[in-house]
Amino acid sequence: MKCLIHTVLGGCLTAAIALATPASAAADYPNKPVRLMVGMAPGGSNDTVARMVAAELSKSWPQPVVVENKPGANSTIATGELKRAEPDGYTLMLVISSHVTNTLLYPNLSYALTDFAPVSLIADTPFVLVANPTFGPSNVPDLIRLAKTKASGIDFGTPGQGSTQHISLELFDQMAGVKMNHIPYKGGAPAQTDVIGGQIPLIFATPTQSLPFIKQQKLKALGVTSKQRLAQLPDVPTLAESGVPGYEANVWFGIIAPGNTPPQTIAFIHKEISRVMQTPAIKARLDEMGLTPLDESPAQFQQLIDSEKAKWTDVIKQSNVKVE
Fold it and tell me: Could you tell me which CATH class the domain 128-242 is placed in?
């Protein structure tokens, strides 16, 4: 009987501790500044999104969320630092789709996807296939026809070897049965500048980057890479509608933490980010940028990472893209 009482009491005590832990962890967090790393230089879409989220969280949290830009090697330097950080919720990182493809492209990374815990998938956006206004084709079917007859190929700029735009171009080539001339730049801005200036005819650009120039007729939009048309460009068809059925290549934005971060801490941060993403001001700002707000759980975010890995593994293997 005495043994039974000890067992029952012990079980009750264990249950009580388990129930108390998430609440106490959430109540105590954060008790010091939180770092939100961005693996790119200031000014890009990912940096802008990170600063929006950080500013809103800082308004309601007892400690600030500080954005730290750590550019280099397509974000892999910052991601490696995140792996080495304490898994306590005080170091986070905003990542985009290249978080997955980097692990397929760089042969000597110090980390794997399993070294991180997904926290929140917060937004996504398609690319816009844009051309110089003097470029002959004004739609995707005409572009494909020209590409199939032009022996020398058509130049197509990207922000660099292995960039999300480059991998999206490889997918387009494979699905459309064409082969563009990949012209890697050191960033999306110089590539777009050369399209506007007529040095190259085509790029995949983010809506944030391209919408002002489309409105000014300095660029013409041939298609968008999402399943649905972009609300800001309702008359521009998707690539899937335009002779490349099934094509989709969005850029997503999410926040991750080091692996082994306590689940209760992950749950608390996700809940807070979810609250921020529902605010009208954030929704309006994302809409201006051509981004669609998302409110996906850590589990849903992990499902996306797994599906993206499977999809892009095949594309990269078939195209033999490598990054040294």
Answer: alpha beta
